[in-house]
Every structure is written in C-alpha cells, then in structure tokens.
C-alpha cells in the first residue's frame, strides 16, 4: 500500500452514478468525500491510485477498491461517470 500526499493521476474530480444518487469527490490531496442521497458526507477517507486501480480506506478503517476504464469508474458493484 503506497500513498501519495499529492496524487498525480487524471482521476481527481467528481464521479456519479447514472441516477445521481451516489457522488464521489476525489480530492487532489488524496482524500475523498462520498455523498449518498441527501447525506453529503456519508463516507470520507483516503484514497490512492496505482495505474487504473483505486484503493480506498475510509476514516473508520473500511477498505475497498475499484478500477477506472476510461472515464468510467467501477467501484463496489457501482458504475460511476465523471461529472464535469
């Protein structure tokens, strides 16, 4: 597990499910904030990217991962799209 304090990858930004219910903001400092429905900070934590893989560790210790395929993020059974 290698974390970088300043990610140098093209995935920083907001990723959303097609219905807009889940919104994940990948911040340039290696932190993320995930909104679910009306809960704007349902999950928060750290992330790091290795190639096209993304790894998460939320603030209570839960871990997860995902993979980017172009401008689509596949994460925890969800498909998320980049929001401009």
Q: Summarize this, please?
A:
0% of the residues lie in helices and 61% in strands. It has 84 residues and is mainly beta.
For the report, how would you describe the main beta sheet?
A: 8 strands, antiparallel, barrel
Which range does the strand content fall in?
A: over 45%
How large is the radius of gyration?
A: 12 Å
* Largest sheet strand order: 1-2-3-4-5-6-7-8
Through-space gap between termini: 29 Å
Which geometry do the CA atoms define? globular
CATH superfamily: Uncharacterised protein family Atu4866
Structural class: mainly beta
Low-confidence stretches: none
The beta-strand count equals: 8
CATH topology label: Lipocalin
The secondary-structure element order is: EEEEEEEE
Class in CATH? Mainly Beta
CATH architecture: Beta Barrel
| Mean of residue pLDDT values | 92
Number of helices: 0
Helix content: under 10%
Number of structural domains: 1
